[in-house]
Amino acid sequence: MVTIYQGRSGLSRRELLKRGSAAGALLIISGSAVLSTGEAWGLESTALKPETLATLIQMARDIYPHDQVPDKFYAIAIKSHDEQAGKDAAHKELIEKGIADLDQKSGAGGYTGLGWEDERVAILRQIEETPFFQAIRGGLVVGLYNQKEVWPIFGYEGESYSKGGYIARGFDDIEWL
């Protein structure tokens, strides 16, 4: 579960640690960046609002849930939407309006404020036919699963052509099943 905290002045180190330990993965929005305290990574926003990126990370995790995959790989996967939004005003509008609609459908705390995955998935099912959802889902297929650092988590050894093909490299080895 990703919890988002929008930092404000006066947050002590003790309060930050207390919030982080109680909430699971903690994403902090600071200026134009989304920061993770638990995994020590950050994602700078260049076109989209950092709150939008944080919501996209949670949305990505809910669309393709893999408990063993750290949030940083989801952040890398959604970064392409920030880059595209910087080049294409229509894409930026699609994403920002899509997140606003998602937050509106989710109630007072917005999408990231929903505590249960089942609640968030129910909201996603309401919008799964929209161009916004399809853009995010489609981008994740490539953005998440084409990261070579993620492959070992799934037991995928990568392409085999350059190594003689799969037949010579354990084609009949079914340990991965």
TrEMBL record:
<keyword id="KW-0472">Membrane</keyword>
<dbReference type="InterPro" id="IPR006311">
    <property type="entry name" value="TAT_signal"/>
</dbReference>
<keyword id="KW-0812">Transmembrane</keyword>
<protein>
    <recommendedName>
        <fullName>Twin-arginine translocation pathway signal</fullName>
    </recommendedName>
</protein>
<feature type="transmembrane region" description="Helical">
    <location>
        <begin position="21"/>
        <end position="43"/>
    </location>
</feature>
<keyword id="KW-1133">Transmembrane helix</keyword>
